[in-house]
């Protein structure tokens, strides 16, 4: 709880300060969606891609936004306090949306489970829920939850969730170094990379197992689909007659799930969107020069 009370935006909330943005808001037209889902932002960690998320928040708007858990990483904050300005900016942008009339529903995950005790409460227009039912424009009922609820079922596979993380990258780098040294010593190639590859295969299995478990659980609850986060893997597909949606994360993937006004769903890959925008701007600049 200590780490949370130290978060600087809480003081600002009480004082009712306006727009204390460090990074100024982007100008220009915003793309409008009926609904936006984002999760696994992990504010309070170095891995969080806050500037990319700020660019996303300044480029889009919606009637409703769901924050599907692991927004603030309380686990990490407790160990080591890390809170740069950009992370404050994310919180403020979300609070500003709520103030402007966007419905903001916050469903805490396992890394921000300390907020679960506030379930049913409303903070500055942000509704805190354990889970939610979202009805799409085309009338489908979607169960929205973080996804750690299935960890007990997934327990046997749980340790694999960490593979594919920084640990894996480190292992691959280590593998190169270890084998360069071994080669110099005249030793044969060692199978660290083979071990790593085996683990990646397991990580893929973990993801598809998680998706199956979530979809089957949703089917028993009589909904048409499910939206979750937790495993940092954006996806949208039908599993056993259920629409499975995962909004991904803002650590590696930088993805969001959106619903268009006709109920059509889409996963936005924000790094690609930024690259496309830069290319368009460059083309416009060069055509202006030519004219
Ligand atoms: Mn999680």
TrEMBL record:
It comes from the Bacteria. Gene3D superfamilies: 3.60.21.10. GO terms for cellular component: membrane. GO terms for biological process: lipid A biosynthetic process. Residues 34-233 form the Calcineurin-like phosphoesterase domain. Keywords: Cell inner membrane, Cell membrane, Manganese, Membrane, Metal-binding. InterPro entries: Calcineurin-like_PHP (IPR004843), LpxH-like (IPR043461), Metallo-depent_PP-like (IPR029052). GO terms for molecular function: metal ion binding; UDP-2,3-diacylglucosamine hydrolase activity. This is Phosphoesterase. The lineage of its organism: Bacteria, Pseudomonadati, Pseudomonadota, Alphaproteobacteria, Sphingomonadales.
């Amino acid at each position: 709880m200590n780490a949370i009370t130290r978060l600087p935006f809480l003081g600002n909330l009480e004082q009712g300060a306006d727009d204390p943005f460090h990074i100024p808001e982007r100008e220009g037209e915003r793309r409008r969606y009926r609904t936006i889902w984002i999760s696994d932002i992990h504010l309070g960690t170095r891995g969080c891609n806050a500037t990319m998320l700020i660019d996303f928040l300044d480029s889009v708007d919606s009637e409703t936004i769901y924050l599907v858990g692991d927004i603030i990483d309380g686990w990490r904050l407790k160990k080591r306090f890390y809170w740069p300005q950009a992370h404050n900016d994310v919180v403020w942008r979300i609070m500003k949306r709520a103030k402007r009339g966007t419905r903001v529903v916050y469903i805490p995950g396992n890394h921000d489970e300390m907020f679960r005790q506030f379930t049913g409460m409303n903070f500055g227009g942000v509704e805190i829920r354990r889970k939610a039912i979202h009805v799409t424009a085309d009338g489908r009922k979607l169960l929205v939850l973080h996804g750690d609820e299935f960890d007990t079922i997934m327990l046997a596979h749980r340790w694999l969730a960490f593979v594919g993380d920084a640990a894996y990258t480190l292992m691959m780098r280590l593998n190169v170094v270890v084998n360069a040294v071994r080669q110099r010593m005249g030793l044969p190639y060692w199978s660290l990379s083979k071990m790593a590859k085996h683990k990646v295969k397991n990580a893929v299995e973990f993801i598809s197992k998680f998706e199956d478990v979530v979809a089957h659980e949703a089917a028993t609850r009589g909904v048409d689909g499910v939206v979750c986060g937790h495993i940092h893997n954006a996806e949208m597909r039908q599993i056993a007659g259920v629409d499975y949606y995962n909004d991904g994360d803002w650590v590696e993937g930088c993805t969001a799930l959106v619903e268009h006004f006709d109920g059509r769903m889409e996963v936005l890959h924000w790094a690609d969107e930024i690259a496309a925008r830069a290319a368009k701007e460059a083309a416009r600049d060069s055509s202006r020069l030519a004219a």
